[in-house]
Amino acid sequence: MNLILAVAVGLLFATALFQLTSRDLFQVSLGVYLLLNASNLFLATVEGAAGVAAPFGTGDIRTADPLVQAMILTAIVISFGIATFLLLLSAALGRRRKSMDVEQLRKWRQ
Amino acid sequence: MTSMLLLVLPLLGAILCLLSWKHPRVQALIVFLTSVASALVALLTALQADLPEHYAIGAWPLPYGITLRLDGLSAIVLVLGGGVFSTATLFHYIEIQEDKSRVDPVYALAFPLALLAVNGIFLTADLFNFYVFFELLAVSSFILVMMGHRHPLEATWKYTVQSVLGSTLFLAGVGTMYGTTGELSLVTLHLAAASSATAAMPLLVFGLLLKGAVFPFHWWQPDAHAAAPTAGSVILAGLLIKVGIYGLLRLVPLFQLSRLHIIMLTIGVGSLLFGALGAWQQSDAKRLLGFSSVSQLGYIVLALGLPSVDGYAAALLFVLHHSVSKSLLFLVVGALSAEVQSTALSTLQGVGRGRPWLHLCFALGALSMAGLPPVIGFAAKISVLQAALFHERWLAAGLAALGGVFTLAYIVRLWSALFWSPPSPDVAANGRQVSSPAKLLLMAALAAALLVGTFYGRAIWQLCQSAADTALRAGVVVFQPRLAADANLGAPALVLGSKESYDGIHA
User: ipTM score here?
Assistant: First the structure.
């Protein structure tokens, strides 16, 4: 199970970094969203490692580490918000400048 | 309890801001009053003796609950944060009063949200909550930059991507930390992490450096500074980039590694030299100040690579001095550039001629920034150099001194352009305007703060030393890590003692 997760996290990070090197504002935004999700999934892999047992439900019931679940849930909400913001920003930039090329950012500055 | 008040006040301000959406003046007033109230509460808490104060939200004890911790270091930065926010929001209020032009209500809302985030960061005793508040701060500062006038969307886009990279690294670091030690509380990490969490170290440290706009990761920062409105620039330069430094102050002592200290020294020296050279080349006043921040942050990061009370105290003193002087310089440049509607140095030529009071305020800030005696910036710079010499980092000390010369050079360049050179055609055409007494009073207040810092330098240095001692000392005050079942759900018990006594509780 952990191997699958590890491979998935690796693939997500690799794809995200590849997307980040793109010249298209939209592609980079998608790369950012993938990156955020990769780190969320990475949090899932630390689950069940050294830590304190669950506060409720002791004994023979096997429970997942609730702290990691809570962290991932919070991180998902944050990454969702930021990804939305970045996508909207890219759209506004593209509409205003009539181009989605990252290289243009440098020229517009002058 | 006061720590909770510091979170509730900004939240209340944000709600009132939402309720007065259609009335920008009321909004500006609410935002200002919130900041002042937060600053006062922080000041009163700092003056009371019984620090550190712990507060468990909902009275849940440690491994499950969220705890707030207010110690000497938090108190100092909380007061600083309140002060910077009061300055920026007062400037915003004055601008709204003078200028009836349309201003987006979201801009005013960003201030209390950023204040909430900053207070939360300074109070939290938990790495993950640090991350959450960090993201809240990032989003509110995106808004502050986005409402600017000079290509704000481009600057915000760069800033957002950089910020996401930093927070990804930081979040991965938090996860690694939890995976290796099973702890996220900054208080208990002091005991558990130092030996085993070296995998988390580069992720956390580089995440914070990315957010803090230090040399190899600085590329968003001058653009964001130039794009943001003046009040936003004050928040950005005075506080936002210092938050990364605050995180480093808390985290670097966890990893007592000489490798990490070498990294901090290298990045610090690179940042202070590169930032100074970059500032010298700029043709825009606000971008010049932005590069100057990169350079000044270099001194702070350099001091963080010197693991002693004096090194950390020097870093903290530098943070205090830089926040005040840089805010003052941004206010002066902002007030001057508002008159000619431009921040280009060529247009701003001689705009400050014949204005003794504005000149005096600028001179104080500039002298402090350049590190010339007797202003407090001199004490900050010399204490960094002294700490470097004490640790026998001769090369770092030498290069830091060289950076001081570069700093003087670009400050004099800005000074001569604004106040000494003959007026540019734009300035001459514009005629001499009288800048508003309210703005002048605000700048005078900041200049007075610099003077007070100069006269009470020794007392401030002692404060910084005791705060640095808090940051460095591991495991003096420890929460009792008991389960909810056998602990009474009141305030968590405090255990005073060393690592041994902590292990004893566990056994």
Answer: 0.89
